[in-house]
């Protein structure tokens, strides 16, 4: 049987080897062109990373593809190819909420690819500080979860940052219960360490399967995984990357209460992207504390036919019951109808901050 299997596979493997040889030659040709692109960009002092251009490349290839590769696989492959090309042009550094193995790192990898210098920061404040100081080129920060809502600290820091939002990542969140020992029984788990949001996203599963285990909030899921790797009786809630990074074993998989659980991340830093035709614009607004003020604030959007995708409020901390409103609208700030709506908003509100216009995550 083995001889017959080898006989039938041999010509197929030979074809794959030929295709691989052609692919590596074409990839190196592409890399040489990327070097030439880099030289032209240097001459004109143009940015290395243009997210709107990369989005156009990926969407074009997805339209050209006839399968069997799925669109998400095409995107994943070309993200890595373009990441390697950017690294040839100029190395780039990206800060994220660490330590290694967090979903923030996974989001950074999904957006920038592997060929970047990733810098793990101990807190969201430090992620912002890294990109503000110029220690890194970009930062990736969580902004909201589909189950637990907004990340308040990110919203507060967006109020002060000078770096624009230049991209977003929408990441499926798959939580696993991770233990040090293979084949560990749930009965052996005395405590579960995870970020508070992860604990909240898995609370029903934990109540059903580990009702007596202590729930220990920690700074990140990766920190929980680190503790699980060295502490007997400790389990962590984290994703696949933390499982691999800390050499843990999954006692249970996909334990999130919402099977469609996702977290949205902002990418900060770099040059503001040009319009792609499928963009989003993020704003922070504030109005007088008086009847009808919020209705009047939103009127320019309706007047110019601009759709609002998100509306959140945060206390202004003035002691006067005033609020900042975080608003996402469809379209780019340079689009005619959006530009007209923003011009009206600037005139009508007490506070206006344009956080950025960027390609929407697929």
From TrEMBL:
- The Prephenate dehydratase domain is annotated at 93-270
Q: Where is this site: Essential for prephenate dehydratase activity?
A: 263
Main location per UniProt? cytoplasm
Q: Which domain of life is it from?
A: Bacteria
Extract the InterPro entries matched here: ACT-like_dom_sf, ACT_dom, Chor_mutase/pphenate_deHydtase, Chorismate_II_sf, CM_dom_sf, CM_II_prokaryot, G/b/e-P-prot_chorismate_mutase, Preph_deHydtase
Reaction(s) catalysed (UniProt annotation): chorismate = prephenate; prephenate + H(+) = 3-phenylpyruvate + CO2 + H2O
Q: What GO MF annotations does this protein's record show?
A: chorismate mutase activity; prephenate dehydratase activity
- Secretion signal, residue range per the UniProt entry: none
Q: Which PROSITE patterns match?
A: ACT, CHORISMATE_MUT_2, PREPHENATE_DEHYDR_3
Query: Which keywords describe this protein according to UniProt?
Result: Amino-acid biosynthesis, Aromatic amino acid biosynthesis, Cytoplasm, Isomerase, Lyase, Multifunctional enzyme, Phenylalanine biosynthesis
Give all residue intervals belonging to the ACT domain: 282-359
Gene Ontology BP term (one): chorismate metabolic process
SMART domains listed in its UniProt record:
CM_2 (SM00830)
Metabolic or biological pathway: Amino-acid biosynthesis; L-phenylalanine biosynthesis; phenylpyruvate from prephenate: step 1/1; Metabolic intermediate biosynthesis; prephenate biosynthesis; prephenate from chorismate: step 1/1
**One Pfam family hit:** CM_2
Q: Where in the cell is it found?
A: Cytoplasm
Entry keyword annotation includes Cytoplasm: yes
Does the keyword Methyltransferase belong to this entry? no
One cellular component (GO) term of this entry: cytoplasm
- Function according to Swiss-Prot or TrEMBL: Catalyzes the Claisen rearrangement of chorismate to prephenate and the decarboxylation/dehydration of prephenate to phenylpyruvate.
Protein name as it appears in the record? Bifunctional chorismate mutase/prephenate dehydratase
Q: What organism is listed for this UniProt entry?
A: Chitinasiproducens palmae
């Amino acid at each position: 049987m083995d001889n017959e299997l080898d006989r039938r596979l041999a010509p197929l493997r030979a074809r794959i080897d030929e295709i691989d040889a052609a692919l590596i030659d074409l990839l190196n040709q592409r890399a040489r062109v990327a070097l030439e692109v880099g030289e032209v960009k240097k001459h004109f002092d143009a940015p290395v990373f243009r997210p709107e251009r990369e989005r156009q490349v990926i969407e074009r290839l997805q339209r050209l593809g006839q399968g069997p590769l799925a669109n998400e696989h095409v995107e994943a492959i070309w993200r890595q190819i373009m990441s390697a090309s950017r690294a040839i042009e100029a190395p780039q550094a990206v800060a994220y909420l660490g330590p290694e193995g967090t979903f923030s790192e996974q989001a950074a990898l999904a957006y920038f690819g592997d060929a970047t210098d990733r810098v793990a920061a101990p807190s969201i404040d430090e992620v912002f500080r890294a990109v503000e100081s110029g220690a890194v080129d970009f930062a990736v920060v969580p902004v909201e979860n589909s189950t637990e809502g907004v990340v308040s600290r990110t919203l507060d820091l967006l109020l002060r940052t000078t770096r624009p939002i230049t991209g977003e990542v929408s990441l499926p969140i798959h939580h696993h219960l991770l233990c040090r020992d293979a084949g560990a029984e749930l009965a052996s788990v005395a405590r579960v360490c995870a970020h508070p949001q992860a604990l909240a996203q898995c609370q029903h599963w934990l109540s059903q399967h580990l009702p007596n285990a202590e729930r220990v909030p920690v700074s990140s899921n990766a920190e929980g995984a680190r503790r699980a790797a060295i502490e007997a009786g400790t389990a962590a809630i984290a994703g696949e990357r933390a499982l691999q990074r800390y050499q843990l074993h999954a006692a249970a998989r996909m334990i999130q209460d919402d099977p469609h659980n996702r977290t949205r991340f902002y990418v900060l830093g770099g040059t503001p992207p040009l319009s792609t035709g499928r963009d989003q614009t993020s704003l922070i607004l504030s109005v007088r504390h008086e009847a009808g003020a919020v209705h009047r604030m939103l009127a320019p959007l309706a007047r110019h036919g601009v759709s609002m995708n998100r509306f959140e409020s945060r206390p202004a901390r003035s002691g006067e019951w005033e609020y900042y409103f975080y608003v996402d609208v469809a379209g780019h700030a340079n689009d005619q109808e959006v530009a007209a709506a923003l011009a009206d908003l600037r005139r009508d509100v007490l506070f206006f901050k344009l956080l950025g216009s960027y390609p929407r995550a697929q």
